[in-house]
Amino acid sequence: MKKELFGIYIIWYREIKKFFRDRPRIIGSIAQPAIFLLVLGSGLASSFQIFGGGGGKEFLSFMFPGIIAMTVLFTAFFSAMSIVWDREFGFLKEVLISPVSRTSIVIGKNLGGSTVAMIQGLIILIFAPIIKIQISWMSVLKLIPVTFLVAMSISSIGIALAARLRSMQAFQVLTNFILMPMFFLSGALFPLLNAPEWMKYIAMANPLSYGVDMMRTVVIGSTALQMYPVYLDIAVTAGVVVVMSILGIALFNRED
Predict the structure, then answer these.
(1) Could you report the per-residue pLDDT of 116-126, keeping only the tens digit for each?
(2) Beta strands in 102-247 (DSSP E)
(3) Cα–Cα distance, 41 to 34 (Å, whole number)
(4) What is the pLDDT of residues 155-193, one digit of tens each?
(5) How many C-beta neighbours within 10 Å does residue 198 have?
(6) Burial (CB count <10 Å: 0-12, 13-18, 19+), residue 123
(7) H or E segment and range at residue 135
C-alpha cells in the first residue's frame, strides 16, 4: 500500500514539476483566457444588451466562470497528451515495468493533471478585479474543490483516450474534434435556458455542461441561470471521473 501511494505521489509530483518549469506554458495559459475575457467578452458585452437590458457587466459576470472552465478543459485534456509523448519516447514503458501498479499510474497521472488544471483555472481569478467582477473569499474557497472535480473529469477522459493512441498527430486531431464542441455546447459563453431543444439535449450529454453549471452557481452566487440542480452537477461530474478512470485503468492494463 505504501509503495502504491508513493508511486502515485511521484507521478503527481512529476506533473507539478513539469508545469512550474515550463514558463511559456504558464504564460500561454494566462494569455488565452485573457484574450477571451478582455477582447471577446468586452466586445460582445459592449455590442449586445442582454439579460433583460442588464448590459455588459452582467454578460461578463456570466462569461467569467465559463472562461475558468475553458482553461480547466484545455489544460486537463492536454495534460493527458504527455502519455502519448512518453509512449513515443519510451518513458512510458519504463513506468509501466516499474513495481507500481498501473492503477496507481492512472490515479497519479489524473491527480497531477487535475492539480495543474485547477491551478491554471484559479489563476484566472486575477482578472476579476480588472473587469469589475466581485467574488467573495467564500466563493473562492468553494470554487477550489469544484474546479478540481471538473478537472478530474476532463483529465480522466483525456487519459482514457491517450491510453490507446500511438501518435501525437492522432491525439491532436481527436482533441480538435472533441474539445471545441464540448466548450461551445457547455453553456460557457451563452445561456442554454432558451437554447433550441436539440442543443439542450446535446448539452445534457456533455460532461462539461455540469461543471460549468457548478462553477457559475458558485461564482455568481445565484441560481437564476442554473441549468441543473447542484446535486446533479456533482453526481454527473463525479460519475464521469469514476467511469472514465475505470476505463483508463482497463486500457492501461492492456498496454504491452
Answers:
(1) 999 998 988 88
(2) none
(3) 9
(4) 999 888 888 777 777 777 777 788 888 988 888 888 787
(5) 8
(6) middle
(7) none
